[in-house]
């Protein structure tokens, strides 16, 4: 693997500007915090039982993500904020999994906590999507007939979100556990954990890249190669953790050349150089 062209000296990191808000424990809570492993094991069951109080009608999904949209009056504006397609481009190549019917339409659920009645669930692990499929078939046998797990990339999801479709992510429980270990004092984590280090920001092909990882194991592997002096627990001190949802919100409201347009999300199991080569091909 070819080494990065150069290490960026720019110090401002977007993820560092979006810290997770620490949860203040209740004064009545004198018991020790729950075991993250136990929380991870019940994570999917908790979300499915809470969100899927009832299933709703499918909605067209996958085809719409690939359709180019003609520029309208807003597309001709001189706004310096990042456009939806620019944000989506940073998410290219990262797969998530959802349940669709035989017509490739999302199977939607309702969330009684928010009142949303057309909510698509997206899993970061295929086995969690398999569990969701089983749940759909159990709760709604007619709707579940012909239903299947379908992969979709995050850039497609983001463009569908721009079209007005609401989604809820089911993160990888292992990464929730990893995030809690990095954020000492937290017993819960809102959103999808993402990981970043200032040691991995590079300038390559005249462009600055600030990589964001979905798996702690991937960023640790990159840090081991980039910094031979960091080993074991020392690696964790170089890693910042935030949530995907918070990072995307910051990208949407910040201008070009602010640092937020340098972000590139690295699909699980891949390195920065491998992903750059693939998206640039």
Which secondary structure elements does this structure contain, and how are they paired or packed?
Elements: E1 6-7, H1 36-41, H2 43-51, E2 55-60, H3 62-66, H4 84-89, E3 95-100, E4 105-111, E5 116-123, H5 126-139, H6 141-144, E6 148-153, H7 154-162, E7 166-170, H8 173-182, E8 193-196, E9 202-204, E10 207-213, H9 216-226, H10 233-236, E11 240-243, H11 244-253, E12 263-266, H12 272-280
Parallel strand pairs: 5-7, 10-12
Antiparallel strand pairs: 1-9, 2-4, 3-6, 4-5, 8-11, 9-10
Helical amount among residues, as a percent range?
25-40%
As a whole number of angstroms, the C-alpha radius of gyration is: 20 Å
Instruction: Estimate the mean pLDDT confidence.
Output: 73
Q: Biggest β-sheet: count, sense, barrel? A: 4 strands, mixed
Low-confidence regions: 1-54, 56-78
Please state the overall shape, judged from the principal axes of the Cα atoms: globular
> What is the tally of helical segments?
12
**What order do the strands of the largest sheet run in, or round the barrel if closed?**
1-9-10-12
Region (Disordered): 1-37
Biased composition (Polar residues): 1-12
Subcellular location: Plastid, Chloroplast intermembrane space
Membrane topology: Peripheral membrane protein
């Amino acid at each position: 693997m070819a080494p990065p062209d150069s290490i960026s000296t720019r110090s401002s990191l977007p993820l560092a500007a979006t810290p997770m808000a620490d949860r203040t424990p209740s004064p009545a809570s004198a018991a020790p915090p729950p075991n993250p492993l136990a929380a991870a094991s019940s994570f999917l069951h908790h979300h499915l039982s809470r969100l899927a109080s009832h299933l709703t009608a499918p909605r067209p999904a996958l085809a719409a993500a690939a359709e180019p949209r003609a520029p309208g009056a807003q597309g001709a504006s001189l706004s310096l904020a990042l456009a939806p397609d620019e944000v989506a481009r940073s998410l290219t190549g990262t797969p998530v999994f959802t349940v669709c019917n035989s017509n490739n339409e999302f199977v939607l659920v309702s969330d009684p906590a928010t009142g949303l009645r057309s909510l698509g669930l997206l899993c970061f692990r295929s086995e969690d999507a398999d569990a969701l499929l089983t749940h759909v078939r159990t709760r709604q046998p007619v709707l579940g007939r012909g239903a299947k797990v379908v992969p979709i990339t995050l850039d497609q999801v983001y463009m569908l979100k721009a079209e007005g479709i609401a989604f809820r992510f089911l993160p990888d429980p292992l990464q929730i556990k990893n995030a809690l270990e990095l954020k000492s004092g937290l017993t819960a984590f809102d959103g999808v954990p993402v990981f970043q280090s200032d040691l991995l920001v590079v300038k390559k092909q005249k462009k600055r890249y600030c990589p964001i990882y979905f798996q702690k194991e991937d960023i640790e592997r990159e840090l081991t190669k980039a910094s031979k002096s960091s080993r074991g627990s020392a690696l964790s001190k170089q890693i910042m953790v935030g949530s995907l949802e918070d990072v995307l919100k910051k990208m949407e409201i910040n201008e070009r050349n602010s640092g937020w347009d340098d972000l590139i999300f690295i699909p699980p199991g891949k390195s920065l150089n491998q992903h750059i080569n693939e998206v640039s091909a």
